Amino acid sequence: MSIKQQISESNNQVIIAIENNFDFSLHQHFREAYSHCNTPKTDFILDLSHTEYMDSSALGMILLLKDHADNLGGQVIIKKPSDTVNKILEIAQFHRLVTIEK
Amino acid sequence: MPKANLLLKIMLAAVFSLLINVIFFNVYFITVFFVLTLLILVSYLLFNLNKNESQAREINTDINDSKIDNTLLRHSFNEITELLDETITIITTELDRASTLVKDAVGGVSNSFIELQALNAQQQVMISSLISQHNSIGDEDGTTLAHFVQSSGETLDDFVKVIINTSKQSLETMSFTDEMVKQFDGIFNLLEQVENLASQTNLLALNAAIEAARAGEAGRGFAVVANEVRSLSVNSTELNEDIRNEINNAKITIAKLRQSVEVMASADMTSTLEAKDDVGVMMNHVEQVNSKTAEGIDELLTLTPQIESAVSTGVRLLQFEDLTFQTLNSLKEELQYITMVSEEFKQFNQLPFNRDAEHLQIIANKAKELKSTLSHANENRTVMQSSMDEGEIELF
Predict the structure, then answer these.
(1) Which residues in chain B are contacts of A87 at CB distance < 8 A?
(2) Of residues B167, B175, B178, nearest to A57 (C-beta)
(3) pLDDT score for B390
(4) pLDDT digits (tens, 9 = 90+) for A3-18
(5) Which domains are present in chain A?
């Protein structure tokens, strides 16, 4: 499994870490990692420090995650993206949509 | 006056000898010597006075003196006249030649200045068209290269947005499909219950048939009903099987749909990354070219007025043509004085000998008159413009 999910109830935080490839094959697991969490004001932290490759479906998944977070009144924070991944996020102009922490 | 010195020496010698002889000779001798010395002195003084008077008289008397050799005079005048005439001819020819040369040279220089100015104007037009062309490479709407590159970048951004939205929509479709698959599983559960019902009905029909057989002749009609119920349950089981098959087919179709959606959702972003980099490089390149071109055009624009002013200076300096012609013309005019003098000499040579002195006087007076006219004309000329820096002249 290249997805690790960690829920910390006290801080209203869900941490999702992706390893290696972030692509379509993960979509079901990725959705399951957040779809059950319906606590208002939850922040979703996406740890991309070990992500090596990302395609457009990954960006689509992040947008769906953002929709989910928006519905809950929370936000999405992307942490430590690699250079390649960061470039893709820049091209997609994601820095305008979500917080990217380097 | 060496003669006077000599006389003084003689007198001193005489006085000296007198003093010596006072002792040795008698008074008579002394007196004779003294008188002789006095005579010599007086005669010298008289001679000197005479000489001064005769010199003063020579200038006055020469004019009225007709003793000059008239033939020699005419011969001399003839030579002078010929020399003057030849000189006048040579000077006139040279002046004309100088005028022609200056005129040709000035004409050429002025033409080349006009050409230079025309070329300069042409260059300015070309620069202007270059500027406008530079600002609007492409169509008439003024699309610049920079604008094109920028819009390419924007198009690329839009393209990326479309890809991401497609991915998002596909993933949503995917989750709906997953829901649908779950609902199919629910339908399978329901079908199983229906199959159970059918098999129970079948058992029930079997039991009814057994009971009908035990009843004998009386249960014959009931056996027919039980048989019908059984065949109904079999039909129902077959129908269930058909529904199961159809739904399985639908599941296969959904698996295919899943694959299609996966292809739709997963676009590789590497080529887009490269394209984005290319656009960035291109944008920088265009900016560099723009700034360099702008610099070049600025330099060209400052050069143009400099050329213009250099040409104007050159044109203004061409005034020297006028000044030179004025000088040459005045030289020509002044030649007439020499011509007049020459004419006077010629007339003199044709007159009879006896009034030569009178005519020489006339020539002298004429020369004096011409000289004063000449110096008057020269004064007027020096007042005229002598510098080329004064005043401005536009192209002629």
Answers:
(1) 273
(2) B167
(3) 47
(4) 887 777 666 889 999 9
(5) 3-101 (3.30.750.24)
